[in-house]
Amino acid sequence: MSGIAVYDYVAQAARLRARAFLASFDLAKLTPLQVAALLDQALPGLINEATAVGTQAGDEYYQAARLRGMAGEEWTPPGVGKLRPGVVDAGLLEEVAAGRLVGQLLRDAIVSYTVQAATGAARSRVRRLIRSDPSPRVRWARVPTGAVTCAWCKMLASRGFAYTSADAAGLAGQFHRHCDCRVVPAFGDRLPEVPGYDPAVLKQEYDAVRRAVEAEPYREVLVNGRMRRQWIRVDDYAIAAKWRQMFPDRVSDGKHTRLMRKTRSDSAKPARVTPDGSYVVDKHTDLVRLARDKLAQVPSELRFGKHMPPEMPQLPPEWWPSQEGMPLLRAKEWNHILYGDHRGEGGHLFGHSWRHKPRVDGGPITEFPVSWTADTVAKALAHVCKTGVPWEQNGLRGTFQGVSLVVRIGTRKTGVTRVITCYPLYE
């Protein structure tokens, strides 16, 4: 069984346990407060079971893979030790107690919560075994997961099992926010077969991109009113940047640089943009297409609660405050907050975070309550901009309808302030 298949097995085992757990209670006869109290008492046991399953699966996978590749080399793995007791997220219980998670929404939330606990335990166990393995005959590969991956990670993955240390392949942490790539070991001379991962195909793309970078030793830039040659250094950064331009539809952060489309008559046709000029409509169309492709990969029984972004970009509400002191809210940032972007960030309106990658700490993207509409989000955003207190760098924190929110504000060189993002903060 490959490393990726192990995580799929753990996720499925966690789903079955969560569904059996839910079937043992008749939640429909309980009030929201009673359901929250019940989950507070019973859910930690389910989380403990899921964590134990994930830990055991990770342990068995690593030792079996090591035995296949390096039979005869003795090694005593570290013990599992005492598992930490399961802890229920306070934000989940608050949503349940407030009656915002009921019926199928509640069942989906518990299943998702259990799957995260199980897969997280499997990853943690494999990481511990990797760090404690003294053998020099272990090589590593960075394996992308999901429908699309960023150019930087595809470049690293194109090297195959070439990394001599797990940290070099990215075990110590993600190379960027919301990265879901995994580090897979190869023992001895035997390379594992990882479903969906073909480094030879990625290497072909890499070679094509590198040749394109080497063919353009410099670019013309405007400096102090005069065109100057800026020499391009052929390194990983230049290759990743070129990858985004050459294969924009194959990476999550692709750059569609041709905002002016050429017609047969060689005349320039401006790309469609929102009225404020901040958001290219074709980029939103690509986002919808990617979401549709990703939803097609989800089994029909698991599609409940997974929403699609609208076909056209949404404009900020007309009533958005324009008085002095209020930041500008553009269409680009407004759609980022609600539905997300190509980088896998944003998408905090309920039902839209499923397409995006988890946070750096492994947790899911936080969503606004299920009862909130886009208009409610706009009102909450305006309320925090007016009454919020400073929080971390360029942030404001406040509360609206009992939900803690964070708003990030940016300031341009002209002095104009604008909203960068807004998201709920569940602690």
What does this protein structure show overall?
- The structure is a single chain.
- The two termini are 37 Å apart.
- The protein has helices spanning 3-23, 32-69, 90-97, 103-132, 151-157, 166-169, 199-215, 236-246, 281-296, 331-339, 374-387; strands spanning 138-143, 182-187, 218-223, 226-231, 260-262, 268-270, 389-390, 395-400, 403-411, 417-424.
- It is α+β, with helices and mostly antiparallel strands and 427 residues long.
- The model is unreliable at 257-269 (pLDDT under 50).
- Helix 1 runs antiparallel to helix 4 (103-132), helix 2 (32-69) packs antiparallel against helix 3 (90-97) and helix 7 (199-215) crosses helix 8.
- It is 41% helix and 13% strand.
- A hairpin with a 5-residue loop joins strand 9 (403-411) and strand 10.
In short:
Helix content is 41%, strand content 13%. It is α+β, with helices and mostly antiparallel strands.
Total number of strands = 10
State the separation between the terminal residues, measured CA to CA: 37 Å
Radius of gyration: 24 Å
Largest sheet: 4 strands, antiparallel
Give the strand content. Answer: 5-15%
Structural class: alpha+beta
Strand order of the largest sheet: 7-8-9-10
Low-confidence stretches: 257-269
Reading the helices and strands in chain order gives: HHHHEHHEHEEHEEHHHEEEE
Summed up, the helix count is: 11
Helical content (DSSP H or I, runs of 4+): 40-55%
Determine the mean pLDDT: 79
Shape: flat
Oligomer status: single chain
